[in-house]
Amino acid sequence: MAEKDIRELVKQAQEVSKNAYAPYSKFRVGCVLQSESGQVYSGCNIENISYGLTICAERAAVSKAISAEGSKFRVESVVIYTPTEMPITPCGACRQVLKEFGDNFEILSVCNSSEIIRTSIDKLLPNSPEIKFE
Question: CA-CA distance, 57 to 41, in Å (whole number)?
Answer without folding.
Answer: 11
